[in-house]
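sry for the spam today, last one i promise. struct tokens for design, 165 residues
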């Protein structure tokens, strides 16, 4: 199962440098904190529509492979993050199977819980980088995060209803 927003997310093309955008857009795209929390600060009820969640082979995560360890399986989670029922963001999380040990096993049980609620409560969270991408008129970003030093990739596409625009 897929969703048109996730097709657009996978079509993002990333800039080598930060593109010339206004300060408000850069504030959204370069946010280091939880996007879930930022949406809630807008006075919105944040919910997750789960599109796909489960183990996949490397073939399903070709775009992320150069940035992650080579493994036979990856945990893939694709969602829409909604604010008051309106989709504001499409998200794709790719987790190498070797990351799913200890407390990080919780990543397999996120279900309809926003990823930010888990990630940003960990004192062991670091971010290697944020890359800004674009597909047609839509902006997105991807980050390699580490939980206790173990990597995962998070890609986010800001949908037309989001306050980024």
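last one done:
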């Amino acid at each position: 199962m897929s969703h048109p927003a996730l097709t657009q997310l996978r079509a993002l093309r990333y800039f080598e440098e930060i593109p010339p955008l206004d300060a408000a857009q850069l504030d959204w795209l370069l946010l280091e904190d939880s996007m879930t929390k930022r949406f809630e600060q807008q006075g919105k009820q944040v919910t997750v529509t789960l599109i796909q969640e489960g183990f996949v082979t490397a073939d399903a995560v070709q775009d992320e492979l150069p940035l992650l360890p080579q493994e036979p399986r990856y945990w893939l989670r694709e969602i829409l993050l909604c604010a008051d029922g309106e989709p504001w963001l499409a998200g794709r999380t790719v987790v190498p199977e070797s990351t799913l040990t200890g407390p990080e096993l919780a990543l397999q049980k996120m279900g309809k819980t926003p990823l930010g609620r888990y990630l940003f409560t960990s004192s062991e969270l670091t971010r290697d980088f944020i890359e800004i991408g674009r597909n047609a008129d839509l902006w997105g970003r991807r980050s390699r995060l580490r939980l206790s030093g173990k990597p995962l990739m998070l890609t986010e596409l800001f949908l037309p209803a989001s306050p980024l625009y």
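The CA atoms of residues 88 and 141 lie 14 Å apart. ok im logging off now
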